[in-house]
Amino acid sequence: MSSFKAIRIDKADKGTTATLTQFDEAELMDGDVTVAVEWSTVNYKDGLAVTGKAPVVRRFPMIAGVDFAGSVIQSAHPDWQPGDKVICTGWGLGETHLGAFAERARVKGDWLVRLPEGMSGRDAMAIGTAGLTAMLSVLALERQGLVPKDGPMIVTGAAGGVGSVAVALLSKLGYHVIASTGRTSEADYLRGLGAAEVIDRNELSGPAKPLAKERWAGGVDSVGSTTLANLLSMTKYHGAIAACGLAGGMDLPTSVAPFILRGVCLLGIDSVMCPLPIRKLAWQRLTTDLDQSKMAEITHEIGLDQVIETGPKILAGQIRGRLVVKIS
């Protein structure tokens, strides 16, 4: 294959352009493993890339897409052989390294994780970076020592990709889950995932008090800004919040009060450069702790030719659950 289909991001006079086009295989970047990409997914960051709403892309031309699952075609890496089924998420894919919305990818073998036994590539991309981030958040909360008997867990942006998986994970692990969403029409959807309560995000949108009434032992936040500040002010003594997103903004208008008066911990979650041993653990836990039947119910499939039009929808919060992209 001398050329292949890909979603290409180019610099324009004003911003960037995204087009589905043919890409020359000779232009693939350095790497010791070449993969036939079979499945991908659309994350919030992908929406930013294809719309140009934020400077996510830092190299041009760029192939968008931060996640893929596929089969190894060629390998100079000792861990990988042709035919191996692999997952790649993060590591700058779609930002500084040619990404996943393409029929071919060339990456470093050290970036790859073996597809878990019993999981298809489609299953893996139904999880994707969003689900991996949710699992990394749960692992961080567990390392902090939190268990279900400590009290409820709050999940913000609950109808989105990270939030949906976080609700499903925490409920299966036995937590009383409070789901916060701006789309209260999704209450039945969230209860189906395992949420015990659904609250309107407006309860967390006002200016945060230094300390407010204690409501939860911990949580997973993909919103940031004022929402995160309110979460922290309402977290119980020695609780913790895992922060993994910025849909509401990068600022954090809070005070030191939750940290020094209640011993609350703010846990930063990064899935892009996460070390390989933690990634492997997270993917293994996802095979046992995530109800695949629930994932099937919240997953929708699109083609590569539908990704660009999906970008604005995911930024507008019009996509619930997970989207998988069938590459070819």
Task: Explain what this protein looks like in three dimensions.
Helix content is 29%, strand content 27%. The chain has 2 domains: 148 residues, Alpha-Beta Complex (Quinone Oxidoreductase, Chain A, domain 1), CATH 3.90.180.10; 140 residues, Rossmann fold. It starts with a strand and ends with a strand. It is an alpha/beta fold and 328 residues long. Strands 3, 5, 6, 7, 8, 15 and 16 form a 7-stranded mixed beta sheet that branches. A 6-stranded parallel beta sheet has the order 11-10-9-12-13-14, with helices on both faces. Strands 2-1-4 form a 3-stranded antiparallel beta sheet. It contains 9 helices and 16 strands. The chain is globular, with a radius of gyration of 20 Å.
The Cα radius of gyration reads: 20 Å
Derived structural class: alpha/beta
The helix tally amounts to: 9
Distance between the termini: 13 Å
Question: So, the CATH homologous superfamily of the largest domain?
Answer: Medium-chain alcohol dehydrogenases, catalytic domain
CATH class call of the largest domain? Alpha Beta
Can you tell me the overall shape? globular
State the CATH architecture of the largest domain. Alpha-Beta Complex
Q: What composes the largest sheet?
A: 7 strands, mixed
Number of structurally distinct domains: 2
* Rounded average pLDDT: 95
Total count of strands? 16
Helix content: 25-40%
**Roughly what fraction of the amino acids lie in strands?**
25-35%
Helix and strand sequence? EEEHEEEEEHEHEHEEHEHEHHEHE
